[in-house]
Amino acid sequence: MNNVTVVNVLRFVALLLLQGLVFKNIGVGWESFPYLHIIVFPVFILLLPIRTPKTLLVFLGFLIGISVDFLYDTLGVHSSAAVFTAFVRPLVLKFFEPRGGYNMSYSPTAARMGLGWFLRYAAILMFVHLFFYYSVEAFTFVYIVDILMKTMVSFSVSMIFVVIFQLLFNPLD
Amino acid sequence: MFNLLQLFIKLSGFLVFVVLEAICFSLVVKYNQRQEKVYVNTVNQLTGYLQSKTAATVQYFQLYDENKRLSKENAHLLDRLANVGINVQNPLDTAWADTLHPKYTFLDAQVIKNSINQNHNYLVLNKGSKDGITSHSGVVTDDGVVGIVRKVSKHFSVAMSILHRQTKISARIRNKNYFGPLVWKSTDIHTFNLEDIPKHAPVTKGDTVETSGYSAIFPPGIMLGVVDKLWMDPGSNFFTIEVKSSLKMSNIQHVYIVRNIFKEEQEQLEQSVIQQDE
Known about the structure:
The complex is a heterodimer.
Chain A: H1 3-29, H2 42-46, H3 54-72, H4 77-95, H5 110-113, H6 115-138, H7 144-169
Chain B: H1 2-31, H2 33-61, H3 63-88, E1 104-114, E2 120-125, E3 138-141, E4 144-152, E5 157-164, E6 169-173, E7 179-183, E8 191-194, E9 208-211, E10 223-232, E11 239-244, E12 254-260, H4 263-277
Antiparallel strand pairs in B: 1-2, 1-12, 2-5, 3-4, 3-12, 4-5, 6-7, 6-9, 7-8, 8-11, 9-10, 10-11
Protein backbone atom coordinates (compact mmCIF):
# COMPACT_ATOMS: atom_id res chain seq x y z
CA MET A 1 0.00 0.00 0.00
CA ASN A 2 1.46 3.28 -1.02
CA ASN A 3 1.12 6.63 0.61
CA VAL A 4 -1.75 7.92 -1.52
CA THR A 5 -3.96 4.94 -0.75
CA VAL A 6 -3.37 5.24 2.97
CA VAL A 7 -4.18 8.93 2.94
CA ASN A 8 -7.41 8.35 1.07
CA VAL A 9 -8.52 5.48 3.29
CA LEU A 10 -7.88 7.63 6.34
CA ARG A 11 -9.73 10.53 4.76
CA PHE A 12 -12.64 8.23 3.97
CA VAL A 13 -12.97 7.15 7.59
CA ALA A 14 -12.39 10.62 9.03
CA LEU A 15 -14.94 12.34 6.76
CA LEU A 16 -17.47 9.58 7.35
CA LEU A 17 -17.22 9.94 11.13
CA LEU A 18 -17.23 13.74 10.93
CA GLN A 19 -20.28 13.75 8.71
CA GLY A 20 -22.22 11.07 10.56
CA LEU A 21 -21.37 11.96 14.15
CA VAL A 22 -20.87 15.73 14.11
CA PHE A 23 -22.56 17.47 11.19
CA LYS A 24 -25.57 15.21 11.19
CA ASN A 25 -26.50 16.48 14.65
CA ILE A 26 -26.03 20.10 13.67
CA GLY A 27 -28.46 19.71 10.81
CA VAL A 28 -31.06 17.92 12.89
CA GLY A 29 -30.57 20.09 15.96
CA TRP A 30 -31.79 23.18 14.13
CA GLU A 31 -35.38 22.14 13.86
CA SER A 32 -36.53 25.69 13.24
CA PHE A 33 -34.35 26.02 10.17
CA PRO A 34 -34.60 22.84 8.09
CA TYR A 35 -32.89 24.46 5.13
CA LEU A 36 -29.45 23.77 6.52
CA HIS A 37 -27.48 20.61 6.13
CA ILE A 38 -23.71 20.82 6.41
CA ILE A 39 -22.34 18.28 4.01
CA VAL A 40 -18.59 17.81 3.74
CA PHE A 41 -18.10 14.17 2.81
CA PRO A 42 -17.92 14.85 -0.98
CA VAL A 43 -14.44 16.25 -0.23
CA PHE A 44 -13.34 12.61 -0.33
CA ILE A 45 -14.50 12.36 -3.95
CA LEU A 46 -13.01 15.76 -4.77
CA LEU A 47 -9.55 14.86 -3.53
CA LEU A 48 -9.11 11.42 -5.09
CA PRO A 49 -6.01 11.32 -7.33
CA ILE A 50 -6.47 12.66 -10.86
CA ARG A 51 -5.41 9.34 -12.36
CA THR A 52 -8.27 7.43 -10.66
CA PRO A 53 -10.16 5.49 -13.36
CA LYS A 54 -13.76 6.57 -13.94
CA THR A 55 -15.20 3.23 -12.94
CA LEU A 56 -13.35 3.15 -9.63
CA LEU A 57 -14.25 6.80 -9.00
CA VAL A 58 -17.97 6.17 -9.41
CA PHE A 59 -17.73 3.06 -7.29
CA LEU A 60 -15.90 4.86 -4.47
CA GLY A 61 -18.51 7.60 -4.63
CA PHE A 62 -21.18 4.99 -4.13
CA LEU A 63 -19.24 3.48 -1.23
CA ILE A 64 -18.93 6.69 0.79
CA GLY A 65 -22.48 7.72 -0.11
CA ILE A 66 -24.04 4.49 1.08
CA SER A 67 -21.93 4.63 4.28
CA VAL A 68 -23.24 8.12 5.03
CA ASP A 69 -26.76 6.88 4.22
CA PHE A 70 -26.46 4.18 6.85
CA LEU A 71 -25.56 6.79 9.43
CA TYR A 72 -28.31 9.19 8.28
CA ASP A 73 -30.87 6.40 7.86
CA THR A 74 -31.76 7.71 4.41
CA LEU A 75 -30.76 4.74 2.29
CA GLY A 76 -30.01 5.77 -1.29
CA VAL A 77 -30.42 9.54 -1.03
CA HIS A 78 -26.81 10.50 -0.24
CA SER A 79 -25.37 7.70 -2.34
CA SER A 80 -27.22 8.74 -5.50
CA ALA A 81 -25.87 12.27 -5.10
CA ALA A 82 -22.35 10.98 -4.40
CA VAL A 83 -22.42 8.69 -7.44
CA PHE A 84 -23.52 11.60 -9.58
CA THR A 85 -20.79 13.87 -8.21
CA ALA A 86 -18.17 11.20 -8.88
CA PHE A 87 -19.47 10.81 -12.40
CA VAL A 88 -19.34 14.55 -13.07
CA ARG A 89 -15.86 15.03 -11.57
CA PRO A 90 -13.87 14.04 -14.71
CA LEU A 91 -15.91 16.49 -16.78
CA VAL A 92 -15.22 19.34 -14.34
CA LEU A 93 -11.54 18.40 -14.25
CA LYS A 94 -11.42 18.51 -18.02
CA PHE A 95 -13.06 21.94 -17.95
CA PHE A 96 -10.46 23.33 -15.54
CA GLU A 97 -7.49 21.61 -17.17
CA PRO A 98 -4.43 23.90 -17.16
CA ARG A 99 -2.63 24.63 -20.41
CA GLY A 100 0.10 22.05 -19.86
CA GLY A 101 -2.33 19.35 -18.73
CA TYR A 102 -2.41 17.69 -15.33
CA ASN A 103 0.46 15.98 -13.59
CA MET A 104 -1.15 12.59 -13.38
CA SER A 105 0.50 11.67 -10.09
CA TYR A 106 -1.06 14.64 -8.30
CA SER A 107 -4.34 14.95 -6.49
CA PRO A 108 -6.50 18.04 -7.13
CA THR A 109 -5.68 19.74 -3.80
CA ALA A 110 -5.17 23.39 -3.00
CA ALA A 111 -1.51 22.71 -2.23
CA ARG A 112 -0.92 21.26 -5.70
CA MET A 113 -3.20 23.35 -7.89
CA GLY A 114 -3.48 26.62 -5.98
CA LEU A 115 -6.28 27.87 -3.73
CA GLY A 116 -8.13 29.82 -6.42
CA TRP A 117 -8.27 26.85 -8.75
CA PHE A 118 -9.38 24.60 -5.93
CA LEU A 119 -12.12 26.99 -4.88
CA ARG A 120 -13.70 27.07 -8.33
CA TYR A 121 -13.36 23.32 -8.74
CA ALA A 122 -14.81 22.54 -5.33
CA ALA A 123 -17.60 25.09 -5.67
CA ILE A 124 -18.97 23.57 -8.86
CA LEU A 125 -18.84 20.00 -7.59
CA MET A 126 -20.27 20.88 -4.18
CA PHE A 127 -23.11 22.77 -5.80
CA VAL A 128 -23.86 19.89 -8.16
CA HIS A 129 -23.76 17.47 -5.26
CA LEU A 130 -26.08 19.51 -3.03
CA PHE A 131 -28.54 20.28 -5.80
CA PHE A 132 -28.75 16.61 -6.70
CA TYR A 133 -29.06 15.66 -3.05
CA TYR A 134 -31.97 18.02 -2.37
CA SER A 135 -33.67 17.01 -5.61
CA VAL A 136 -33.59 13.37 -4.59
CA GLU A 137 -34.68 14.32 -1.11
CA ALA A 138 -37.76 16.12 -2.44
CA PHE A 139 -38.08 13.53 -5.23
CA THR A 140 -40.05 15.96 -7.36
CA PHE A 141 -39.27 19.22 -9.12
CA VAL A 142 -42.60 20.67 -8.04
CA TYR A 143 -40.75 22.34 -5.14
CA ILE A 144 -37.88 23.58 -7.28
CA VAL A 145 -37.73 26.93 -5.45
CA ASP A 146 -37.48 25.13 -2.14
CA ILE A 147 -34.78 22.86 -3.53
CA LEU A 148 -32.76 25.83 -4.81
CA MET A 149 -33.12 27.68 -1.48
CA LYS A 150 -31.89 24.69 0.47
CA THR A 151 -29.06 24.17 -1.99
CA MET A 152 -27.88 27.77 -1.75
CA VAL A 153 -27.96 27.93 2.07
CA SER A 154 -26.29 24.56 2.58
CA PHE A 155 -23.81 25.27 -0.17
CA SER A 156 -22.48 28.47 1.45
CA VAL A 157 -22.06 26.91 4.87
CA SER A 158 -20.61 23.64 3.56
CA MET A 159 -18.12 25.48 1.35
CA ILE A 160 -16.78 27.36 4.38
CA PHE A 161 -15.98 24.04 6.06
CA VAL A 162 -14.45 22.59 2.91
CA VAL A 163 -12.11 25.56 2.62
CA ILE A 164 -11.26 25.48 6.33
CA PHE A 165 -10.20 21.83 6.04
CA GLN A 166 -8.14 22.59 3.01
CA LEU A 167 -6.32 25.43 4.80
CA LEU A 168 -6.06 23.52 8.08
CA PHE A 169 -4.54 20.29 6.77
CA ASN A 170 -3.26 21.58 3.45
CA PRO A 171 -2.77 18.03 2.13
CA LEU A 172 -0.54 17.28 -0.81
CA ASP A 173 -2.50 14.17 -1.78
CA MET B 1 -16.27 -7.95 -31.70
CA PHE B 2 -13.05 -6.30 -30.63
CA ASN B 3 -14.54 -2.91 -31.44
CA LEU B 4 -17.56 -3.73 -29.38
CA LEU B 5 -15.34 -4.71 -26.47
CA GLN B 6 -13.39 -1.48 -26.81
CA LEU B 7 -16.59 0.50 -26.81
CA PHE B 8 -17.64 -1.36 -23.72
CA ILE B 9 -14.43 -0.51 -21.90
CA LYS B 10 -14.70 3.10 -23.00
CA LEU B 11 -18.23 3.33 -21.71
CA SER B 12 -17.62 1.31 -18.55
CA GLY B 13 -17.53 4.43 -16.35
CA PHE B 14 -20.88 5.53 -17.65
CA LEU B 15 -22.36 2.06 -17.38
CA VAL B 16 -21.24 1.67 -13.76
CA PHE B 17 -22.69 5.11 -13.08
CA VAL B 18 -26.06 4.16 -14.55
CA VAL B 19 -26.18 0.85 -12.70
CA LEU B 20 -25.23 2.43 -9.38
CA GLU B 21 -27.76 5.26 -9.80
CA ALA B 22 -30.43 2.69 -10.55
CA ILE B 23 -29.52 0.84 -7.36
CA CYS B 24 -29.54 4.10 -5.40
CA PHE B 25 -32.96 5.13 -6.66
CA SER B 26 -34.45 1.73 -5.96
CA LEU B 27 -33.06 2.03 -2.42
CA VAL B 28 -34.48 5.55 -2.10
CA VAL B 29 -37.92 4.39 -3.12
CA LYS B 30 -37.78 1.29 -1.01
CA TYR B 31 -36.48 2.67 2.28
CA ASN B 32 -37.68 6.29 2.40
CA GLN B 33 -41.35 6.81 3.13
CA ARG B 34 -41.81 10.25 1.63
CA GLN B 35 -40.00 9.46 -1.60
CA GLU B 36 -41.89 6.20 -1.83
CA LYS B 37 -45.17 8.10 -1.66
CA VAL B 38 -44.09 10.49 -4.38
CA TYR B 39 -42.91 7.58 -6.51
CA VAL B 40 -46.11 5.57 -6.12
CA ASN B 41 -48.20 8.65 -6.85
CA THR B 42 -46.22 9.51 -9.97
CA VAL B 43 -46.32 5.95 -11.26
CA ASN B 44 -50.06 5.82 -10.69
CA GLN B 45 -50.58 9.07 -12.55
CA LEU B 46 -48.36 7.93 -15.39
CA THR B 47 -50.07 4.58 -15.83
CA GLY B 48 -53.45 6.29 -15.60
CA TYR B 49 -52.41 8.73 -18.30
CA LEU B 50 -51.05 5.95 -20.51
CA GLN B 51 -54.17 3.89 -20.06
CA SER B 52 -56.46 6.75 -21.02
CA LYS B 53 -54.26 7.47 -24.05
CA THR B 54 -54.31 3.87 -25.25
CA ALA B 55 -58.04 3.73 -24.71
CA ALA B 56 -58.46 6.85 -26.82
CA THR B 57 -56.25 5.40 -29.56
CA VAL B 58 -58.13 2.13 -29.63
CA GLN B 59 -61.38 4.08 -29.78
CA TYR B 60 -60.08 5.93 -32.79
CA PHE B 61 -59.64 2.70 -34.70
CA GLN B 62 -63.19 1.70 -33.85
CA LEU B 63 -64.60 4.95 -35.21
CA TYR B 64 -65.49 3.43 -38.57
CA ASP B 65 -67.68 0.75 -37.01
CA GLU B 66 -69.05 3.29 -34.59
CA ASN B 67 -70.00 5.56 -37.48
CA LYS B 68 -71.76 2.76 -39.26
CA ARG B 69 -73.64 1.85 -36.12
CA LEU B 70 -74.68 5.46 -35.52
CA SER B 71 -75.92 6.01 -39.05
CA LYS B 72 -77.96 2.81 -38.77
CA GLU B 73 -79.43 4.09 -35.55
CA ASN B 74 -80.12 7.44 -37.18
CA ALA B 75 -81.96 5.75 -40.02
CA HIS B 76 -84.04 3.94 -37.50
CA LEU B 77 -84.84 7.15 -35.64
CA LEU B 78 -85.70 9.02 -38.85
CA ASP B 79 -87.95 6.11 -39.67
CA ARG B 80 -89.90 6.69 -36.53
CA LEU B 81 -89.82 10.48 -36.73
CA ALA B 82 -91.21 10.63 -40.28
CA ASN B 83 -94.09 8.43 -39.30
CA VAL B 84 -95.00 10.26 -36.11
CA GLY B 85 -96.89 12.95 -38.00
CA ILE B 86 -99.10 10.42 -39.72
CA ASN B 87 -100.14 8.61 -36.62
CA VAL B 88 -100.99 11.77 -34.73
CA GLN B 89 -103.70 12.57 -37.27
CA ASN B 90 -105.69 9.55 -36.19
CA PRO B 91 -108.16 9.60 -33.33
CA LEU B 92 -106.73 8.11 -30.22
CA ASP B 93 -109.49 5.57 -29.78
CA THR B 94 -109.12 3.98 -33.20
CA ALA B 95 -106.27 1.81 -34.33
CA TRP B 96 -106.01 1.67 -38.07
CA ALA B 97 -104.29 -1.26 -39.64
CA ASP B 98 -102.22 1.13 -41.77
CA THR B 99 -100.89 3.02 -38.79
CA LEU B 100 -99.13 -0.09 -37.64
CA HIS B 101 -97.06 0.07 -40.81
CA PRO B 102 -94.68 2.93 -41.30
CA LYS B 103 -95.23 5.04 -44.36
CA TYR B 104 -91.57 5.91 -44.90
CA THR B 105 -88.56 3.71 -44.37
CA PHE B 106 -85.00 5.00 -44.13
CA LEU B 107 -81.90 3.04 -45.07
CA ASP B 108 -78.36 4.29 -44.54
CA ALA B 109 -76.00 4.22 -47.51
CA GLN B 110 -72.52 5.39 -48.43
CA VAL B 111 -71.78 7.69 -51.33
CA ILE B 112 -69.12 6.01 -53.45
CA LYS B 113 -69.11 8.47 -56.33
CA ASN B 114 -70.27 12.06 -56.52
CA SER B 115 -69.98 14.96 -58.94
CA ILE B 116 -70.91 18.62 -58.56
CA ASN B 117 -69.33 20.39 -61.52
CA GLN B 118 -71.53 19.21 -64.40
CA ASN B 119 -74.94 20.31 -65.58
CA HIS B 120 -76.23 16.86 -64.79
CA ASN B 121 -74.67 15.56 -61.62
CA TYR B 122 -75.09 12.06 -60.28
CA LEU B 123 -74.30 10.13 -57.12
CA VAL B 124 -73.52 6.45 -56.87
CA LEU B 125 -74.62 4.74 -53.64
CA ASN B 126 -73.54 1.39 -52.24
CA LYS B 127 -77.03 -0.02 -51.73
CA GLY B 128 -79.08 -1.63 -54.47
CA SER B 129 -82.12 -3.78 -55.22
CA LYS B 130 -80.69 -6.41 -52.90
CA ASP B 131 -81.37 -3.96 -50.05
CA GLY B 132 -84.85 -3.12 -51.28
CA ILE B 133 -84.04 0.13 -53.05
CA THR B 134 -86.31 1.02 -55.97
CA SER B 135 -86.02 3.86 -58.46
CA HIS B 136 -87.61 7.16 -57.46
CA SER B 137 -86.57 6.77 -53.87
CA GLY B 138 -85.43 9.93 -52.15
CA VAL B 139 -81.85 10.50 -50.95
CA VAL B 140 -81.38 12.75 -47.93
CA THR B 141 -78.89 13.59 -45.20
CA ASP B 142 -79.43 15.18 -41.82
CA ASP B 143 -78.91 18.57 -43.47
CA GLY B 144 -81.31 18.22 -46.37
CA VAL B 145 -82.23 16.66 -49.67
CA VAL B 146 -79.43 15.21 -51.81
CA GLY B 147 -81.22 13.70 -54.80
CA ILE B 148 -83.52 11.06 -56.21
CA VAL B 149 -82.62 7.48 -57.14
CA ARG B 150 -82.87 6.92 -60.88
CA LYS B 151 -81.63 3.41 -61.55
CA VAL B 152 -80.88 0.46 -59.35
CA SER B 153 -78.64 -2.55 -59.90
CA LYS B 154 -78.21 -5.43 -57.54
CA HIS B 155 -75.58 -3.79 -55.33
CA PHE B 156 -75.58 -0.15 -56.39
CA SER B 157 -77.94 2.64 -57.22
CA VAL B 158 -77.46 5.84 -59.18
CA ALA B 159 -79.20 8.96 -57.98
CA MET B 160 -79.64 12.18 -59.88
CA SER B 161 -78.26 14.84 -57.63
CA ILE B 162 -80.21 17.88 -56.54
CA LEU B 163 -77.63 19.58 -58.77
CA HIS B 164 -79.21 18.21 -61.95
CA ARG B 165 -81.02 20.48 -64.42
CA GLN B 166 -84.00 18.15 -64.57
CA THR B 167 -84.43 17.49 -60.89
CA LYS B 168 -87.63 18.94 -59.52
CA ILE B 169 -88.41 18.66 -55.86
CA SER B 170 -91.83 19.49 -54.59
CA ALA B 171 -91.19 22.21 -52.01
CA ARG B 172 -93.16 24.50 -49.77
CA ILE B 173 -92.53 27.46 -47.53
CA ARG B 174 -92.64 26.41 -43.92
CA ASN B 175 -95.81 27.37 -42.06
CA LYS B 176 -97.21 29.18 -45.12
CA ASN B 177 -98.37 26.25 -47.23
CA TYR B 178 -97.52 27.76 -50.61
CA PHE B 179 -95.80 25.15 -52.69
CA GLY B 180 -93.93 24.78 -55.94
CA PRO B 181 -91.04 22.90 -57.53
CA LEU B 182 -87.49 23.60 -56.46
CA VAL B 183 -85.09 23.51 -59.40
CA TRP B 184 -81.42 24.18 -59.96
CA LYS B 185 -80.83 26.82 -62.62
CA SER B 186 -77.78 28.62 -61.36
CA THR B 187 -74.14 27.61 -61.58
CA ASP B 188 -73.65 27.93 -57.85
CA ILE B 189 -74.09 24.68 -55.95
CA HIS B 190 -75.78 26.48 -53.06
CA THR B 191 -78.36 28.46 -55.03
CA PHE B 192 -81.70 27.04 -56.18
CA ASN B 193 -84.92 28.46 -57.57
CA LEU B 194 -88.37 28.02 -56.11
CA GLU B 195 -90.98 28.41 -58.81
CA ASP B 196 -94.75 28.79 -59.06
CA ILE B 197 -95.18 30.79 -55.88
CA PRO B 198 -98.05 33.22 -56.63
CA LYS B 199 -97.42 36.91 -56.16
CA HIS B 200 -99.97 37.29 -53.39
CA ALA B 201 -98.08 34.82 -51.19
CA PRO B 202 -96.64 36.47 -48.06
CA VAL B 203 -93.08 35.32 -48.72
CA THR B 204 -90.24 37.20 -47.09
CA LYS B 205 -86.51 36.89 -47.13
CA GLY B 206 -85.30 34.32 -44.60
CA ASP B 207 -88.29 32.01 -44.91
CA THR B 208 -87.45 28.33 -44.67
CA VAL B 209 -88.09 26.15 -47.70
CA GLU B 210 -88.79 22.47 -47.04
CA THR B 211 -90.12 19.44 -48.86
CA SER B 212 -93.88 19.42 -49.23
CA GLY B 213 -94.50 15.69 -49.15
CA TYR B 214 -96.81 15.92 -52.15
CA SER B 215 -94.52 14.09 -54.53
CA ALA B 216 -94.58 10.88 -52.53
CA ILE B 217 -90.81 10.75 -52.75
CA PHE B 218 -89.77 12.72 -49.67
CA PRO B 219 -91.60 12.95 -46.40
CA PRO B 220 -92.78 16.47 -45.65
CA GLY B 221 -90.65 18.86 -43.66
CA ILE B 222 -87.10 18.08 -44.82
CA MET B 223 -84.98 21.22 -44.99
CA LEU B 224 -84.10 22.50 -48.46
CA GLY B 225 -82.81 26.00 -47.80
CA VAL B 226 -83.65 29.58 -46.92
CA VAL B 227 -85.16 32.26 -49.14
CA ASP B 228 -82.27 34.52 -50.09
CA LYS B 229 -83.63 36.86 -52.79
CA LEU B 230 -87.08 37.34 -54.25
CA TRP B 231 -88.48 39.64 -56.88
CA MET B 232 -91.31 39.81 -59.41
CA ASP B 233 -90.56 39.93 -63.10
CA PRO B 234 -92.85 42.39 -64.92
CA GLY B 235 -95.92 40.73 -66.39
CA SER B 236 -95.47 37.62 -64.33
CA ASN B 237 -97.92 36.28 -61.83
CA PHE B 238 -95.26 34.46 -59.90
CA PHE B 239 -92.37 35.35 -57.68
CA THR B 240 -88.84 34.55 -58.75
CA ILE B 241 -87.30 33.17 -55.59
CA GLU B 242 -83.68 32.28 -55.01
CA VAL B 243 -83.12 29.76 -52.25
CA LYS B 244 -79.80 29.42 -50.47
CA SER B 245 -79.01 25.88 -49.35
CA SER B 246 -76.49 25.17 -46.61
CA LEU B 247 -76.00 21.57 -47.68
CA LYS B 248 -72.38 20.81 -48.59
CA MET B 249 -72.83 18.66 -51.68
CA SER B 250 -69.08 18.44 -52.21
CA ASN B 251 -68.25 16.24 -49.24
CA ILE B 252 -71.23 14.03 -48.68
CA GLN B 253 -70.43 10.57 -47.35
CA HIS B 254 -73.34 9.17 -45.41
CA VAL B 255 -76.84 9.46 -46.83
CA TYR B 256 -80.22 7.93 -46.11
CA ILE B 257 -82.43 6.49 -48.82
CA VAL B 258 -86.11 7.20 -48.17
CA ARG B 259 -88.78 4.92 -49.51
CA ASN B 260 -92.49 5.64 -49.43
CA ILE B 261 -94.22 2.31 -49.05
CA PHE B 262 -97.54 3.59 -50.39
CA LYS B 263 -96.00 5.47 -53.27
CA GLU B 264 -97.11 3.05 -55.98
CA GLU B 265 -100.61 2.88 -54.64
CA GLN B 266 -100.84 6.65 -54.51
CA GLU B 267 -99.39 7.12 -58.01
CA GLN B 268 -101.61 4.46 -59.54
CA LEU B 269 -104.65 6.17 -58.13
CA GLU B 270 -103.53 9.54 -59.45
CA GLN B 271 -102.81 8.06 -62.89
CA SER B 272 -106.19 6.33 -63.13
CA VAL B 273 -108.01 9.60 -62.46
CA ILE B 274 -105.93 11.46 -65.02
CA GLN B 275 -106.54 8.74 -67.60
CA GLN B 276 -110.30 8.82 -67.00
CA ASP B 277 -110.41 12.57 -67.61
CA GLU B 278 -108.54 12.28 -70.86
